[in-house]
């Protein structure tokens, strides 16, 4: 028995010595990465962190460099099942390789692939002689000047085809893979209407901030309000049909959430891409190291939480004919709904 105890003590002692040999800078990198994942990821609660930390300790016990511990950080990140986030390790991007988390390209029709190949463009027009149609694409601009200009482009396109006889609006998000949400919302704020439309919730369940339209401007948390300066009046009484599909992701999904719960509004099409969480990034110790995690999920104005995707109220699978509205089954479903909505 004494020999067995001596052997056990020796093993534990050796483990402590090998861990102690990890340079402080590398140890700080690992600890920082794991703490961020555990404290701030919205998927943290599903992870057994005691087990993960034990495994990371085993992987890194003989580590001397950042490269030596990258596999441990990748392992811990994979346990989150975060399909929206990613790591930067030594300047190289890493995403969870689980095929179940990959973007499902099999859901894309040939027509949508063709439309997407033309790049991010705003398309607008009139459908059925009485409904304004606008397609809002991905937008990646981040500066205030870019955001205001894009919001104004959306509003100008909307107003160009809106008149006194307009009975409803179709907002097509099928090519909206995300980007900067707020100029998208600001561009149709007069359609969305005043008031709160969503709020962010962190990993602990705490509300981190609200998004709303106030006096025609979009306000997000403590940000500077964003507004399209030229418009065509209050359109918030018109019914709205939003069209979504598998390309609709991130900010595109949050656009759909913004209108969910709005009176006389419906989401039509296919379940979205599954990137509805809000990402945020943090630098980590060491050159070229950073982490982007899903740190918030969104709740709509009725308090419904969205952690994965947006499921349409009226499901229409396939039938895309993006540039021929009379033959596009999703647009025609929107027309049918708008015609009977008073």
What attributes does this structure have?
342 residues, alpha/beta, 2-enoyl-CoA Hydratase, Chain A, domain 1, 2 domains, 6-stranded mixed β-sheet, 21% strand, disordered N terminus
What features would you describe in this structure?
With 342 residues, this protein is of the alpha/beta class. It has 2 domains: 2-80, no CATH class; 105-340, 2-enoyl-CoA Hydratase, Chain A, domain 1, CATH 3.90.226. Helix content is 35%, strand content 21%. It has 10 helices and 14 strands. It has helices at residues 2-20, 24-40, 49-60, 66-80, 110-117, 144-160, 181-187, 189-192, 251-259, 329-340; strands at 86-89, 92-94, 123-127, 131-135, 168-172, 195-202, 207-214, 217-220, 240-244, 265-269, 278-283, 290-300, 305-306, 314-315. The strands form 2 sheets. Strands 1, 2, 6, 7, 8, 11, 12 and 13 form an 8-stranded antiparallel beta sheet that branches. Strands 3-4-5-9-10-14 form a 6-stranded mixed beta sheet, with helices on both faces. Helix 3 runs antiparallel to helix 4. The radius of gyration is 24 Å and the shape is elongated. 40% of the residues are buried. Residues 1-19 have low confidence and may be disordered.
């Amino acid at each position: 028995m004494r020999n067995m105890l001596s052997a056990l003590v020796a093993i534990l002692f050796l483990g402590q010595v090998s861990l102690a040999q990890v340079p402080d800078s590398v140890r700080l990198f690992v600890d920082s990465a794991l703490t961020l994942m555990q404290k701030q990821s919205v998927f943290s609660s599903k992870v057994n962190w005691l087990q993960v930390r034990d495994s990371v300790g085993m992987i890194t016990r003989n580590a001397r460099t950042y490269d030596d511990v990258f596999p441990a950080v990748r392992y811990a990140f994979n346990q989150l099942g975060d399909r929206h986030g990613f790591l930067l390790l030594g300047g190289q991007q890493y995403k969870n390789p689980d095929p179940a988390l990959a973007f499902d390209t099999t859901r894309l029709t040939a027509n949508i692939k063709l439309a997407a190949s033309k790049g991010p463009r705003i398309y607008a027009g009139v459908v059925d002689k009485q409904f304004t149609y606008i397609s809002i694409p991905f937008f990646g601009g981040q500066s205030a000047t870019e955001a205001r200009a894009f919001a104004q482009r959306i509003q100008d396109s909307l107003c160009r085809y809106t008149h006194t006889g307009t009975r409803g609006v179709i907002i097509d998000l099928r090519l909206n893979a995300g980007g900067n949400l707020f100029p998208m919302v600001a561009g149709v704020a007069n359609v969305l209407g005043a008031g709160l439309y969503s709020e962010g919730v962190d990993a602990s369940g705490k509300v981190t901030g609200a998004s709303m339209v106030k006096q025609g401007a979009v306000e997000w948390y403590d940000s500077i309000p964003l507004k399209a300066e030229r418009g065509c009046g209050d359109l918030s009484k018109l019914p709205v049909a939003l069209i979504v599909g598998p390309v609709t992701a991130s900010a595109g999904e949050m656009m759909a959430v913004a209108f969910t719960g709005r009176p006389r509004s419906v989401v039509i099409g296919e379940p979205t891409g599954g990137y509805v969480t809000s990402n945020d990034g943090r630098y980590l110790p060491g050159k070229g190291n950073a982490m982007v995690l899903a740190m918030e999920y969104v709740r709509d104005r009725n308090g419904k939480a969205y952690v994965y995707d947006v499921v349409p109220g009226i499901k229409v699978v396939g039938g895309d004919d993006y540039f021929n509205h009379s033959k596009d089954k999703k647009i025609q479903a929107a027309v049918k709904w708008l015609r009977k909505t008073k």
